[in-house]
User: What shape does this take?
Amino acid sequence: MHNNGTKCVFCKIIAGTERTVKVYEDDLCIAIMDIAPVNRGHLLVIPKKHYETVLEMPFKEAAHIFGVACLIAKAVKKALGAEGVNILQNNGRAAWQHVFHVHVHVIPRWVGDEIYVYWPAKLSNLDELENVAISIRRSLNMIKGEVDSK
Assistant: This one.
């Protein structure tokens, strides 16, 4: 974690040195209108502390920003009459992250709005899924042990 306000656009916004349109703010995060929206009403929920990815964040802070994202999603849906809402969060270049300060996209959606999030899903067999799940469970138990010991 670092707070490099000279390079990070979101740190500049939080510090008040970069203009933005703010919708929400509390002690831990802000919600702002996306400067390059994919749909009318596209917002970002951003923690005030600088973390490159959500994987670096303490559990309670990550839970808080996702809770705020859900609150914002309800307000966006109601205010704009959206038919649905995407809540997206990307970690790393391979996952489409472009600004390396955690942020959660809240994107109002309408049928036929021509915004596509695509992944070529492939069916898998249950034995293969169980083998992958065993590895994930092992990692999860180790990570939970690290979190619980702090």
